[in-house]
From TrEMBL:
Keywords: Oxidoreductase. It comes from Mycolicibacterium wolinskyi. One of its GO terms (molecular function) is oxidoreductase activity. Belongs to the short-chain dehydrogenases/reductases (SDR) family. The keyword Oxidoreductase applies. This is Short-chain dehydrogenase. InterPro entries: NAD(P)-bd_dom_sf (IPR036291), SDR_DHRS6-like (IPR051122), SDR_fam (IPR002347). PANTHER family: DIHYDROANTICAPSIN 7-DEHYDROGENASE (PTHR43477).
Length: 261
């Protein structure tokens, strides 16, 4: 382990972006705790399992690992093909409970990075609706809240919008009380095992359009460097931000007519 080795928790380390992030930190000599729903072979110093749908499972994990950590990379998420209750419990509530529980376990100067999505585009226009969700911290209450929402609005989008808004609202208090930064990363489509699920829920034609616009889908190697940067001291003055990693697709959508070159 190098002199600059850190203690890093990666949640969702079994595959995809989470697995690549865990391997990255492990390769640089960090002590990595790889957390996932199921046992896995991701390169790491430790492996533990946790069911983000279950608050008791999260509490048990946090009680087992103790303090003295430097980074939480919370990458775990499920696509919109999962049951709506699971989408909200994992993508929003599980992330929230893990983040809040890790704050006192992180050293001052630590960093929390959550992975959201460009599917959360437009969260600013739904703050009033999302505020109602952010007032809830129990799984059953979250399910009841979702039951009262427009069934045609994608629950995956809601879950990632809530994750971004939560991170922004907790970033200031986390900095003031613990000296810990909280940011989110929003990838566009990424070549991972669940890409087919996104094609099913968002439409393959939509994802093909994204790919044709920017040239290709992202790989995990396009996303992990940003997670690593936000975990590093070099990003020490970045807090409460959501950074899109999509080759500029969302900027092209929202910025108006491109400037001809």
């Amino acid at each position: 382990m190098s002199e600059t080795a850190r203690r890093v928790v990666v949640v969702g380390a079994g595959s995809g972006i989470g697995g690549a992030a865990a391997a990255h930190f492990h390769d640089r000599g960090d002590h990595v705790l790889a957390v996932d729903l199921r046992p896995n072979n991701t390169p790491a110093s430790q492996h533990l399992t946790c069911d983000l749908r279950d608050a008791h499972s999260i509490t048990a994990l946090l009680g087992e690992i103790g303090g003295g950590w430097d980074v939480l990379a919370h990458v775990a998420g499920v696509p919109g093909t999962a049951p709506p209750a699971d989408v909200l419990r994992v993508n929003y509530l599980g992330m929230r409970l893990m983040t809040e529980g890790m704050l006192p376990l992180l050293r001052q100067g630590g960093s929390i990075i959550g992975v959201a999505s460009t599917a959360a585009l437009g969260w600013e226009q739904r703050i009033d609706i999302l505020t109602g969700l952010l007032e809830l911290t129990a799984g059953d209450d979250v399910e009841r809240w979702q039951a009262g929402q427009d069934p045609d609005f994608p629950v995956y989008t809601t879950s990632k919008q809530a994750a971004i808004l939560f991170a922004k609202r907790i970033a200031g208090p986390a900095w003031s009380k613990y000296g810990v930064r909280v940011n989110t990363v929003s990838p566009g489509p990424v070549e991972t095992p669940i890409l087919a699920d996104f094609e099913q829920t968002m439409g393959k034609d939509v994802l093909d359009m994204v790919r044709s616009t920017v040239g290709r889908h992202a790989t995990v190697d396009d996303v992990v460097p940003l997670i690593a940067f936000l975990a590093s001291p070099e990003s020490r003055w970045i807090n409460g931000q959501d950074i899109q990693v999509d080759a500029g697709f969302i900027a092209a959508m929202t910025g108006g007519v491109p400037i001809a070159l």
